[in-house]
Design goal:
Shape: globular
Distance between the termini: 39 Å
Strand order of the largest sheet: 2-1-3-4
Helix content: 40-55%
Oligomer: single chain
Radius of gyration: 17 Å
CATH architecture of the largest domain: Up-down Bundle
Strand content: 5-15%
CATH class of the largest domain: Mainly Alpha
Number of strands: 4
Number of domains: 2
CATH topology of the largest domain: Glutathione S-transferase Yfyf (Class Pi), Chain A, domain 2
Order of helices and strands: EHEHEEHHHHHHH
Number of helices: 9
Largest sheet: 4 strands, mixed
């Protein structure tokens, strides 16, 4: 199997983390999203959305990170994607929530307009309004994650065992580290993220991401 990815990509990192952590052999092809390689016609033939990650398994191709995680987990019969109907539905629910609610405000509303030039708004006023909207939405979403999805007793998103929802969610939440978001008001989130970061492969998989965060450590950002 071959994974087209970038090691700093929010949506690539969960797939890489799950694969490395679970001994899944993937040939990783880096697509340089910082130079716009993903926007070129050659990559568009693989994914017309011009986004990473993309998984190729023989003549079968998947272009969405959430679907790739589920496919790899099913292919390897991983307990991180439970077979029992309701347990699996809960994992799916959390992954959908991260993609359609959390990431929309936290990633695209708050973080990306500040760190990625192609996401910056065309005027200072529109940039300011976007970030204010993102901060409000991110604050609400983190509160929901802290109080509803996790709560004081949950070790992981879906109970006492790690699932692919945790792999995805932790990588999504960690992008706030780039703009130095303070998660201390969300102690359940801090505890959960810390547990996921204890995975033996976390530091290695996130090495490039952490390097990028370090490279912008002196830039001013509007965090939380």
């Amino acid at each position: 199997m071959k994974l087209y990815m970038h090691p700093a990509s929010t949506t690539s990192r969960p797939v890489s983390l799950f694969a490395v952590e679970n001994g899944i052999a993937l040939e990783q092809q880096v697509v340089d999203i910082f130079t716009g390689e993903h926007l070129q016609e050659a990559f568009a033939k693989l994914n017309p959305n011009r986004l990473v990650p993309v998984l190729e398994d023989g003549d079968f191709r998947l272009t969405e990170g959430s679907a790739i995680l589920k496919y790899l987990a099913d292919k390897t019969a991983s307990p991180a994607y439970p077979k029992e109907l309701r347990a699996r539905a809960r994992v799916n629910e959390l992954m959908d929530w991260f993609n359609t609610d959390f990431y929309r405000t936290y990633g695209y509303g708050l973080v990306y307009p500040q760190i990625l030039p192609n996401h910056r708004r065309p005027s200072e006023e529109s940039q300011r309004v976007t970030i204010e909207w993102g901060r409000a939405g991110a604050t609400k979403a983190l509160g929901i994650l802290n109080d509803h999805w996790l709560g004081a007793k949950a070790a992981y998103l879906c109970g006492d065992a790690i699932t692919i929802a945790d792999y995805m969610g932790a990588c999504y939440v960690s992008i706030g580290e780039i703009i130095r978001c303070d998660l201390q008001p969300y102690p359940n989130v801090v505890g959960w993220l810390g547990r996921v970061k204890q995975l033996r492969s976390w530091a290695k998989v996130n090495e490039v991401f952490n390097g990028f965060a370090a490279s912008v450590k002196d830039q001013p950002f509007a965090g939380l």
